[in-house]
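note to self: the first set is below, dont mix up w the second
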Amino acid sequence: MPLTLGELIADPELDIRVEYWNRDADPVVTGAHVSELLRPGEWLAGGEILMTVGVQLPITPDDCAAYVRDVKAGGAVVLALGLGHRLPHRSVPPLLIEAALAEDLPLLGIPEEVPFISITNAVYAAIVLDERHALERLVELHKSLTFSAASGGGLEGIVATWTAATGVGVVVTDPLGVQIVASDPSEGTHPEEETLRELAAVLAPKGVRGALKTTIDGQPVEVQPVGTTRLRAFAMLIGNAGPLIPVATTALISILALELERRWLTSEPDRQQRARDFQRILIAESESEAEALLRAAGLTGAEFRCIAVDPGDGSPTDLVADLSLTIRGGLIRHTEGGPVEAIVASDADIEEDIRRFAPASAAGIGSLMTPGTLASSRAQAMAALVTSRTLGRPVAYRRGFTQDWLTNATDLEMAQTFSDAVLAPLTQADPSGALVATVEAWLTANCQIDPAAERLRVHRHTVRARLRKVEQLIGQPLDQLDTRVELWLALTAKGVHRLPNARPMDS
């Protein structure tokens, strides 16, 4: 325990006389200092017993009061005056006692047979003893935490041991701020769930370097990242910490990190099983079989989607670990040399998860599909991943994805050359663009004349006439699938989104 004024006075080897002391308070003495300055306050660090023989001690009431105020403002908790026949004062002056009483600053008289060095030695001997006891307690705490982890107590045992030994509450959350385990709430008020998430959101981008100290509901809170090379969790310490708590905190964080790594390693067989279930869902022979496999993983609903994410420069294992935090069901897999893949529910904000855990990685997101057709969603995710690598951002597959694929996955110059070559006979014969617009409207209308005419706002006979003209120009019949596909790809590569107000072409 720290040295208090009461313990210092009670020391039988020190003949200390109390001139004034409000015994309702027993201040802690953290140092000893000797000064004969008239204004010693600026030389104090706080917590000291200030000793003086009073060479320049003021003799007027105002000056004496100003001296005591300066000593107290400097942080001293005790003022001691040396007394003796060969010293300036044989007894403590009444004016000094009155000033000490007015400022409520303990005042002592030190007889000449007690040298100041004796009091200094007593103060620092007590401080050294207290620090030794604190280190012993720290060693015992480390042993207790290690024993809790080694004996199978898990995170719960580690947290309970910590709080019982320090009186400081702790909440362990995942990197998203979702609580994993917490000490007994009776030890102190734990932050609300929303507050935990907000703190995690601020620190998570900093990884294992993210830490802060703050105050929540009047309580000091320290947030420390937990993890060896990858952020696994946050430990939020709640309550007033002692002077050696920073050292103890390092021990706590290290043991929590080891326990989380152990949990991750021991769950490897389960992750491998889920990776196998992922493949079984893709090749399920019926809707009901795929639905049953999803339900076994804890996923219910009518539709799901597949995603594919490049690990980039990071570790695929770490990316799997991060996504496992938020993807319900944990249906995630990674094959050597390929992307990390997952099946996610329809209500998952997967784009936000990708931004958080793989901000610089290419990612493809498939369409929502029923359980029995998830193989198609995976194929879409893989196709979108190709485009994402070019665009540098996540890409979600959607209807009309062909244009994105052509303009981003294919060399732009090559795509434009292809488009110009296919459409050149039409654009050269009709610079107004009516022929190109008619072909696009007709293809968009599933090769139906009337809808195409309505969209172009021309008569259906005009559409037929233009299409005959197109056949003559390209030298191929439009009723052949290859011709239609080639024209559609050329139009898509050209990027024709809206039809111009075409004028009727002279026949």
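second set (the one i keep forgetting abt)
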Amino acid sequence: MAKVIEAPYTQGVRDAEKVLAVPSVVSKAPGIVMQGRRIRSLVFSTDLAVICHCNADAVLAVYPFTCQPAITQALVGVSQRPVLCGVGGSITQGERCIEVALHSEMQGVAAVVVNTSIPLDTLRGLVERVTVPVVVTVCAADEVAERQIAAGVTMVNVAAGARTAEVVQALRGRYPELPIIATGGPDDASIERTIAAGADVVSWTPPDIRALERAVMEKARRLAKAQL
């Protein structure tokens, strides 16, 4: 039998990968079915290395620039799980937003995501012309959110900071059947509150890649020094 020799940094890498495990409390979320999978957790990232080393059920890939087809293709190809991709809102609107969404759909995304500042006519155009789910990010359970939901979106993504659970609860009370994604917050307690309020899926922000790299290198140095 071949002998396996581990480099000094191997355990450090494993430790970093453990950090990229979604909090286990997320498993309490009921989830939604997308592309034949039950999705309970989303990793909020566009970093391909993080996505590859994370055990989230799906990917929430939203970034503050106009959606680029090359980026979308890379995300879909690397993720090996459903990708919910941002296609517009405050920066990309109108026909350009719809074109980007249609292109993303052809590339294989599981859903397209727009932010709360999306014009209603653009949102209606997306709902009419895109066949994958349309997700709108909301920050409050207000008239803006009501109009966006009335436009026919498939689901909402609640990102309201410390008020997220409160907003989720208000929306769940008004829309019992509406699929709701929501940010989980900083710890298990906040995630549990979000799920208890009515969230179906929890989005999770992973640790900063630079902090992970620093932790791995520090661990590797300690192990290397111990072997001298």
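remember for set 2: The longest strand covers residues 83-88.
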